[in-house]
Specification:
Blueprint (H helix, E strand, L loop, with lengths): L4 E6 L2 H9 L4 E4 L12 H10 L3 E4 L12 H16 L4 E4 L10 H11 L3 E4 L9 H11 L3 E4 L10 H11 L4 E4 L8 H8 L3 E4 L3 E4 L13 H4 E4 L2 H9 L5
Helix pairs in contact: 3-4
């Protein structure tokens, strides 16, 4: 029987707390999940590290948008990575591309070396690269621990064939972790088809703020009065969906 791992992407302390309550095996700690995730604050990383006995992998991404970074942004990434390392996180999540769509392997390898002995996940920047099989070999050579991918499509259900081929090609040299659209109703099929044993999901929903006073001019403002939530029971259900395999 396979040992499956469920990684949950969280956006703040409360969603992390609920993901842990639900039995997540690992947390990808982010800010700004609506932008695909950016580096969480120092305070959030520190508080989560102190409160939760769980594998904690902050994303190291200085902004939303593309994955082409200048020297100042790369300097920020180095500093944020060291902060995560120094406070006892278990790994980091990175992703860098060159202008031509190839992996920025020089700076990726530099970050892997800087992170050591922490694990390094290469995130869905991989899904925007030119040649996924060339990129696979480069990331193995650079020492990355895993690749988070939706099969170079926006939703994992549409990229499952490529994920299956990547997992075969990886041949246990690196972990291929499907993500983006992983839910209770499809995770068993994804595991069956791909042969993968680690899965990534945010299970993110919105809940109305408990604020009693609502400023009338902002009454319909989602950013003002709706918060990100993760329900512990949904994490438990996601894990349970794999138990029959």
């Amino acid at each position: 029987m396979n040992q499956y791992i469920i990684e949950i992407a969280t956006s703040d302390f409360l969603t992390t707390q609920n993901a842990v309550k639900g039995g997540a095996d690992r947390i990808e700690l982010c800010a700004n999940l609506a932008e695909g995730g950016t580096t969480p604050s120092y305070g959030l990383m520190k508080q989560c590290r102190e409160e939760f006995d769980i594998l904690l992998y902050p994303i190291i991404r200085p902004r939303g948008g593309d994955f082409l970074y200048n020297k100042d942004e790369f300097s920020i990434m180095r500093q944020d990575l060291l902060a995560a390392k120094n406070m006892g996180c278990d790994g980091v999540v990175i992703g860098l591309l060159n202008m031509d769509g190839t992996i920025d392997i020089v700076r990726t390898a530099e970050l892997v070396k800087l992170a050591y002995p922490l694990g390094v996940t290469f995130h869905r920047a991989f899904d925007r690269c030119k040649n996924p099989f060339d990129a696979l070999e480069e990331l193995i050579e650079a020492g990355c621990e895993r690749i988070l991918t939706s099969g170079q499509t926006p939703n994992v259900n549409d990229g499952i064939d490529l994920i299956m081929e990547l997992n075969k090609k990886a041949n246990h040299r690196i972990i291929i972790m499907p993500g983006s659209g992983v839910r209770t109703d499809n995770i068993k099929n994804l595991a069956d088809k791909s042969g993968c044993t680690e899965f990534h999901s945010s299970l993110r929903k919105k809940a109305k703020s408990p604020m009693q006073f609502i400023q009338p001019s902002f009454e319909h403002s989602e950013e003002s009065y709706w918060n990100n939530v993760i329900q512990p029971e949904e994490v438990r259900e996601l894990k349970a969906a794999l138990q029959s395999l």
